[in-house]
Amino acid sequence: MAPSTGAVRPARSLVIFGLIVAALYALVFFTGDKSPTPKLGIDLQGGTRVTLTARTPDGSQPSQDSLRRAQEIIETRVNGLGVSGSEVVIDGDNLVITVPGDDSSQARTLGQTARLYIRPVQGSAASSNSQAQAPKAETPAPAPAPQNRPFPAQDPGTPAPPTETPAPPAEQGAASTADQAAAEIAEAKKTRQSTDPAVQQQAMAALDCNASDPLQGNDDPALPLVACSTDGTTVYLLGPSIIDGQEIADATSAFNTQQSRNEVSLTFKSSGSTTWAQFTSANIGKQAAFTLDSKVVSAPVVQGATPAGSATSITGDFTTATAKELANTLKYGSLPLSFQASEAETVSATLGLASLEAGLIAGAIGLVLVLLYCLIYYRMLGVLTALSLVLSGLMVYAIMVLLGRYIGFTLDLAGIAGLIIGIGMTADSFVVYFERIKDEIREGRSFRSAVPRGWARAKRTILSGNAVSFIAAAVLYVLAVGQVRGFAFTLGLTTILDVVVVFLVTHPLVHLASKSDFWSKPSINGLGAVQQVARERKTAASARTSAGAQAKEA
Q1: What is 467-494 written as a DSSP string?
Q2: N vs C: which end of the chain shows fewer Cβ within 10 Å?
Q3: Cα–Cα dist 249/312, whole Å
């Protein structure tokens, strides 16, 4: 028989819970952005999720340091674009970029390697698959002074708007993908980065500017390069790099009112600025190509020497948005790895709203079914269950808002599933408690005396069950990736809150009910049938005792 518990102070427990809820909502409404709305994932509010698979020239596995550096750079690019609610996470050898909103182009271009080199132009020809005529000699932009990693004025005949290079198709399996990528890069280098003039001419004639580029961001700056312009109309033969894009100190975008065009202005570090000044003074009348991820963005003619320390402008067929994106990409540096988009998912805001409504409806249906079961089976004790679940829901909502505000936690469909399961687990704790009370009443105790003894037995079972659930959620969170972690997180959170609610709300309320004459009525608490069983057992035991006594007397 379980021993009775010590003194219980239900009022103190309820006050503590009330203070916790009050403190949470004070943080919600009086700190941060003061918005009482949780941060939603793209499957609930709409947005784009892009999975970038890292590629290395030799097909080896990328190091975690390189992935972390790439993650940091992409995060700064996101912040530079002013995109709120975005996140970049490492998932194995992949980076997963999530950008909310309707503009999917931002997320799809954030993984651009942005390896910029300045190379001398040794020759050019119209692309074999281009419908345009061969580019004419261009007149570079007058004012800008080229420098360290600059992009001077673009030849009018070869406008080069920066466009996204299509990623190679995803392969069957990580190992085969890495091997094939390494083989494609090595094969491309043999022809397009050969030092043999005959091979170079063959590469210029054979290069398809509309096909995906295996060298994207993987070209060797110390070797020549056969590359296409970004618009695919011109093929260039370029010499080894003279300036690395890492020499860029700053990059900004602006609209040139005199030329009526958008430009990207570059400021170089001292060493790059000196190199560019020397190159321009020695190559007046020749072209210099600015290559970004193995594509020629701009190839202006050097019209005069550029003084060291002056800025250089990149011109082309830029819109305001593309100029800003390019400046942002160059400003925050090149990625240490090249990536291909292995998966891209765009969810419209309308679909996200529909998903949110479906999740809320599912949660409401689950809650209503639990409450109906408790009311039918436990009568008025089900009201205490309903009150406990409502208070638990208030606490969960406040915590979701605060987690989204301070650690960037986003609530998605998987997270809602974890919350719905948490409702069932909380109800399960109530069932365990109430059934233990029934067991005590069957042994002949009153409702008042059964509550503390039932609690002493039930709380061990509740703690054990929740401990197992929390361990399972923790293991799932550590081992899982992506949205499954959101499910594990909310499941673990609701498991902890279940314990808090049962100890600080449910048990104190039931304890208070056991002291009340109204709640002690069998017709109210639904325990009449159990008490009848107890009386029948007591009568049968008395009959057996009387029969035994009579038998002894006989």
Answers
A1: HHHHHHHHHHHHH--THHHHHHHHHHHH
A2: C
A3: 12
Asked whether residue 227 carries a pLDDT value surpassing 90, the answer given is yes
Main-chain phi, psi angles of 226, to 5 degrees: -100, 120
pLDDT, one tens digit per residue, over 510-523 is: 888 888 888 777 77
Tokens (6 digits) for 2:
């379980």
Per-residue pLDDT for 76 more than 50? Answer: yes
Q: How far is it, in rounded angstroms, from Cα 297 to Cα 423?
A: 56
| Closest by CA position to 430, among listed 466, 469, 479 | 466
Taking residues 251-255, report their average pLDDT: 87
Q: How far is CA 400 from the centre of its chain?
A: 16
Distance in angstroms (rounded) separating the CA atoms of residues 345 and 51: 9
pTM (2 decimals)?
0.55
Check pLDDT > 50 for residue 78.
Answer: yes
Q: Classify each residue of 61-84 as buried b or exposed e, where b means 16 or more C-beta atoms within 10 Å of its C-beta.
A: ebeeeebeebbebbbebbeebebe
Closest CA to 497 of 468, 470, 474: 470
Instruction: Report the alpha-carbon distance of residue 236 to residue 228 in Å, rounded.
Output: 6
Alpha carbons 401 and 410: distance in angstroms, whole number: 9
| pLDDT tens-digit map of 477-504 | 888 766 788 888 899 999 999 999 999 9
